[in-house]
């Protein structure tokens, strides 16, 4: 069973994810249909970042996963050599 702290952290993560999803969806899907002179455009980054930010995040994620897998494989290889 989850503790109270776990539930609060989980709720916070869900809330942050929902905010990011709503912002990005509005930015990418709805904003192109709103007049470019409308005041709502000042609350959003330029559209070029709509591709650049997820691309950079994906590359960082792949880099992190690659480094993690490499370090696990190297540690496993050291343990195997010691056992022999």
UniProtKB/TrEMBL annotation:
Origin organism is: Sus scrofa (Pig)
Q: Name one GO biological process term.
A: dolichol-linked oligosaccharide biosynthetic process
Q: Which family does it belong to?
A: Belongs to the DPM2 family.
Kindly state one GO CC term assigned in the UniProt record: endoplasmic reticulum
> What name does the UniProt record give this protein?
Dolichol phosphate-mannose biosynthesis regulatory protein
| Residue ranges of the TM segments | 12-34, 49-74
Major subcellular location class: endoplasmic reticulum
State the membrane topology: Multi-pass membrane protein
Asked if the Swiss-Prot or TrEMBL record annotates the protein with the keyword Kinase, the reply is no
**In which compartments does the protein localize?**
Endoplasmic reticulum membrane
Any one Gene Ontology MF annotation carried by this entry is: enzyme regulator activity
Name a Pfam family for this protein: DPM2
Taxonomic path: Eukaryota, Metazoa, Chordata, Craniata, Vertebrata
Keywords (A to Z) from UniProt: Endoplasmic reticulum, Membrane, Transmembrane, Transmembrane helix
Subunit annotation? Component of the dolichol-phosphate mannose (DPM) synthase complex composed of DPM1, DPM2 and DPM3; in the complex interacts directly with DPM3. Component of the glycosylphosphatidylinositol-N-acetylglucosaminyltransferase (GPI-GnT) complex composed at least by PIGA, PIGC, PIGH, PIGP, PIGQ, PIGY and DPM2. Interacts with PIGA, PIGC and PIGQ.
Q: Tell me the route in metabolism or biology where this protein functions.
A: Protein modification; protein glycosylation
The stretch of residues making up the signal peptide is none
User: What biological function has been recorded for the protein in this entry?
Assistant: Regulates the biosynthesis of dolichol phosphate-mannose. Regulatory subunit of the dolichol-phosphate mannose (DPM) synthase complex; essential for the ER localization and stable expression of DPM1. Part of the glycosylphosphatidylinositol-N-acetylglucosaminyltransferase (GPI-GnT) complex that catalyzes the transfer of N-acetylglucosamine from UDP-N-acetylglucosamine to phosphatidylinositol and participates in the first step of GPI biosynthesis. May act by regulating the GPI-GNT complex.
């Amino acid at each position: 069973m989850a503790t109270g702290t776990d539930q609060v952290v989980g709720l916070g993560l869900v809330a942050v994810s929902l905010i990011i999803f709503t912002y990005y969806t509005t930015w990418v899907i709805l904003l192109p249909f709103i007049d470019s002179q409308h005041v709502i455009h000042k609350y959003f980054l330029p559209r070029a970042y709509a591709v650049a930010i997820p691309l950079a995040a994906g590359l960082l994620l792949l880099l992190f996963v690659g480094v993690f897998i490499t370090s696990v494989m190297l540690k496993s290889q050291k343990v195997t050599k010691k056992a022999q």
